[in-house]
Design brief:
This protein is an all-alpha fold. The chain has a domain at about 1-100. It contains 21 helices and no strands. It is flat.
């Protein structure tokens, strides 16, 4: 009956049935759509193309037309949305994405990457610089953890039981519990889970219980090691373990600031920037970055000037060149004395490991011979060098270098280590100057929302920022 009705309609000049006519129209649109659908990469545009049949299989007459029941199926494959509406929804989605993430829309449309060719070397330098900062942060963080652990370890094991504190007992209890607990856990790995947990808990209890038994073990030995590191080694020139940890913390903060600047995630107020037209973002960014660089450079010089006057003997009325010259001279003297202290440390270390008191192994004759052969006479007046010698009837001399000029060597390198602050500010200023060039060349994204993404503000290969989907 359907066939007869179709034939009558065809004879009457009405053409194909409505369902077939709609499907034929969808096919005609699908023939023009594949290229656009592939370039857009969306599922909604691919629906009508998938539902349409190839040209050579298209029905040539009403006899070859599919049943009417196939039309709803084709509509379901297309998401129950007519082709015109689907294209409209797709365009609206693309416009919405373009408003929110311009780089994503540009990459999806296949547009060429931004960024002038002259900015590629600058972008490459910044990427290598950023990678170096990341490695330095990792190294400094590991060093800081090691220093803090060493301090806690030595302070706990060197604490005598007669000091009135329970630090030594508590540290030994924790150390014993951890050691025996780990041994029981790994030793019982072939046992059932409950037995393994029970053995581990029992070992932890035993480790805590036996702490009073060995609370006096190693107190003198580790007290000697701690005393040498704090009072008679190169660490003494840096302020001891605590001084090293403090300077490492400062270095870590400045490296983190440099890395945040490179990624566009430094602290800044962007309320006004968000209301600026897009064409004014680059000039505004240049002014912003330039002003920040000037402030960082001014602060760097201010801190350096203070350190030069307070630590390196410069006068307040000296010129900038004179302050720099005196600072360089003082740093050279400190470097010489540090090399001499390292030579003493190499002599002291085997004796400290062997248990000999660090401050009594060096006799007066050994000290005098070391002073005469250390090269002090080539840098200091002979009368100052003779002042370092001690009477031969003296019992011993601590293995700590002495400045012939009379400066105390305890904490001597703290002055030099304080220079990390002006140096770090100078590095941050250079970072902002680089960002000016990258902003002008188009290698960084100046969208205020770019700072809240999880990836850096420019792609690893230069050009546009990474789309969110690629970054993930």
């Amino acid at each position: 009956m359907a066939k007869d009705d179709d034939g009558k309609k065809e004879d009457a000049g009405l053409g194909a049935p409505p369902a077939a006519a709609e499907e034929a129209g969808a096919e005609a649109e699908a023939e023009d759509a594949p290229a656009a659908a592939k370039s857009a990469g969306t599922a909604t545009a691919a629906g009508p193309a998938k539902a349409a049949a190839p040209d050579d299989e298209a029905p040539s007459s009403s006899d070859d037309a599919p049943p009417k029941s196939d039309a709803p199926a084709a509509a379901e494959d297309a998401g129950d949305v007519p082709p015109e509406d689907a294209a409209t929804v797709q365009d609206a989605a693309r416009l919405s994405e373009a408003d929110e993430h311009p780089a994503m829309a540009q990459a999806a449309a296949g547009a060429p990457k931004r960024g002038a060719a002259w900015g590629e070397p600058i972008a490459a330098v910044e990427r290598k610089w950023t990678a170096l900062d990341a490695k330095l942060i990792t190294g400094v963080l590991v060093a800081q953890l090691l220093v803090l652990v060493a301090w806690v370890f030595l302070a706990g094991l060197s604490s005598p039981t007669t000091s009135g504190t329970k630090a030594g007992w508590a540290f030994r209890a924790v150390a014993g519990a951890v050691a025996l607990g780990c041994a029981a856990w790994f030793g019982a790995k072939k046992r059932p889970e409950k037995q393994r947990l029970g053995a581990t808990l029992a070992a932890i209890v035993v480790g805590i219980a036996i702490a009073p038994v060995w609370r006096n073990l190693g107190v003198e030995y580790f007290d000697n090691v701690k005393g040498w590191l704090q009072e008679g080694s190169t660490l003494t020139l840096m302020g001891g373990l605590r001084g090293v940890a403090t300077r490492l913390t400062l270095w870590l903060a400045l490296l983190g600031a440099s890395l945040a600047t490179a990624m566009g995630k430094h602290i800044h107020v962007d309320v006004i920037f968000r209301f600026l037209p897009v064409r004014l973002r680059v000039p505004a960014a240049v002014v912003n970055f330039g002003a920040t660089a000037v402030v960082c450079m001014a602060a760097a010089w201010g801190f350096f000037d203070h350190i030069a006057v307070q630590s390196f003997g410069a006068r307040l009325e000296d010129t900038a060149g004179a302050k720099v010259a005196k600072s360089v001279h003082a740093l050279g003297e400190h470097a010489f004395l540090t090399r001499k202290q390292i030579s003493l440390d190499l002599r002291t270390l085997p004796r400290v490991i062997g248990g000999a008191p660090y401050d009594r192994w060096m006799s007066a004759n050994q000290w005098n011979e070391w002073v005469k052969g250390a090269g002090f006479s080539s840098r200091y007046p002979q009368e100052q060098v003779d002042g370092l010698l001690v009477p031969e009837d003296s019992l011993s001399h601590a293995p700590l270098v002495i400045d012939p000029g009379g400066e105390s060597t305890r904490g001597m390198l703290v002055h030099a280590l304080n220079l990390v602050f002006p140096f770090g500010l100078l590095v941050i200023a250079l970072r902002f100057l680089l960002r000016i060039l990258l902003a002008i060349s188009g290698h960084i994204d100046l969208d205020p929302n770019a700072a809240h993404q999880s990836e850096p503000s420019h792609s690893p290969g230069g050009g546009d920022p990474l789309p969110v989907e690629e970054a993930r």
